[in-house]
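**Backbone shape codes:**
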Amino acid sequence: MTAGREVCPLPPWGVSNGRTVGSVNIYTCGKGTVGGGSATCLPSKEWDKKIDTTCTPILAHPCKNDSLCSEINGYCSAKGQCECEPSKIYDETSKECVVECADGWEKFGVHCYLFNNDPLSWEKAKIHCTQLGSNLLKVEDAPEHEFAKAKCAEYGTIYYWIGARWSTEYGEYRWYDDTVMNYTVWSPGEPDIKRGCVDMLVSVDWAWNSHHDCSNTNGSSICEKG
């Protein structure tokens, strides 16, 4: 098996004329010829008789719409095959299309992050991130928070704006797009009666702090895209 290539499993019963065999359709792995009794893998895969699993769609797989390609975060191109959008690359580790991080951006998982130390208000930081094709950081889980926390400490300022603020419509803190904050790391006593925006604060080990002034208080910020 060629090193560095994704495995394209061969059903244990073999290939049967390019048709669906049992629960495995060989078209998922490669190109079959009905009646010809043969199948070839796509360039990034090869048959492995030792593995008995169902194949998964990959880059360059034939397609008619985005349904198949969406499983690798791609789209069906005019060539009739799954491709990554121009702003993305195919990541061999995660087996999906991911944003290619520009210089100055930090990569974590399939996202890119910019830790901007130029002092901006929360509102201006939000606009700045949007102009860069991103948004203020939306923390989805503990690993992402730990990544942001480590980078905040590395870059060495007092606090960083993230993408949460008080929503008068919903009467609670929400992310910039009004989605619910299912994961939070509020510092002790937070959020308090202040109805403003949120930062990660060094004095509480980068836990989250509510701040009343989103328009005039300037600080560092974190942009995220991907």
About this structure: The chain has three helices and 18 strands.
